[in-house]
Amino acid sequence: GAVVSQHPSRVICKSGTSVKIECRSLDFQATTMFWYRQFPKQSLMLMATSNEGSKATYEQGVEKDKFLINHASLTLSTLTVTSAHPEDSSFYICSAPTGTRLTDTQYFGPGTRLTVL
Amino acid sequence: QQPVQSPQAVILREGEDAVINCSSSKALYSVHWYRQKHGEAPVFLMILLKGGEQMRHEKISASFNEKKQQSSLYLTASQLSYSGTYFCGTGGTSYGKLTFGQGTILTVHP
Predict the structure, then answer these.
(1) Is residue B3 left, alpha or beta, with left meaning phi > 0 and alpha meaning psi from -120 to 50?
(2) Which of B:22-61 have CB within 8 Å of A?
(3) How many Å apart are CA A34 and CA B28, to the nearest integer?
(4) CB distance from B93 to chain A under 8 Å?
(5) For residue B109, what are the β-bridge partners?
(6) Backbone phi, then psi, for A81, in 5-degree steps?
(7) Contact B108, B57 (CB under 8 A)
């Protein structure tokens, strides 16, 4: 299957600092990528849709000023958690569909575990 | 709205079978099944697109009943490697957006 990478895999930061997470599609181009957050033993919750060349679309309840998304190219989307707090600690996962059809498979990156002290 | 998965957890012995169900209150256009191991990202298993369609991935198969707005995942002759949390993701008309169920924890013992 298609490969999606994320960097870093783990990050520990102090409260109040900002953290950037990268998501790359390695062997295909993705005009759209998705960012999910998963708390322990819970489901994946969609945070936002990242669109190449345009603004991201955020799900209800997700603060767009806190979670900045930039889709700089057809293979890279970044999520920046600004002024992180302990409650932002979570597993952040990106995904990318392999094509533009409604039915194309989505592949997930390996995830980034964020711990805010 | 989040689809509902049942059961929440199931414990099997190697070689036994299991069924995981995924139901939605909204019309479904597609159902995507994933397996996630602890601390890892979800791994794609299969996608179902049409009512009545059945797919297969090794000894795991799935069906999609469009009228009932539900899908079932069938695990046959389970192996130790099947252990993990299974999620169904339901797709609507918004391109690529999936809403995931709460997950079903499957544990296979020797």
Answers:
(1) beta
(2) 29-30, 32, 34, 39-44, 47, 49
(3) 20
(4) yes
(5) B13
(6) -90, 110
(7) no
**The tokens of B3 are what?**
């689809």
On whether the CB atoms of residues B52 and B66 are closer than 8 A, the answer is yes
Query: Which tens digits make up the pLDDT trace of A68-81?
Result: 999 989 999 999 99
- For chain A positions 54-113, those within 8 Å of chain B (CB to CB) are 93, 97, 100, 102-111, 113
Q: pLDDT tens digits for B32-83?
A: 999 999 888 899 998 888 666 677 777 899 988 888 889 999 999 999 999 9
| Average pLDDT, integer, range A49-65 | 92
Q: How far is B49 from chain A (nearest CA, A)?
A: 7
Residue with tokens 């597993």: A91
- Cβ–Cβ below 8 Å for B29 and A109: no
Residues written for chain A: 117
What pLDDT shows up at residue B82? 96
Residue with tokens 């759209």: A32
Q: Which tokens belong to B78?
A: 């389970």
Cβ A97–B96 below 8 Å, yes or no? Answer: yes
For residue B27, give every residue at least 6 positions away whose Cβ sits within 8 Å of its Cβ, in sequence order, or none.
B69, B92
What digits encode the pLDDT tens for the residues A12-43?
A: 999 999 999 999 999 889 989 999 999 988 99
In the predicted model, what is the mean pLDDT of residues A50-78? 93
Q: Distance (Å, rounded) from C-alpha A13 to C-alpha B81?
A: 34
Residue B89 CA, chain-centre distance (Å), reads 8
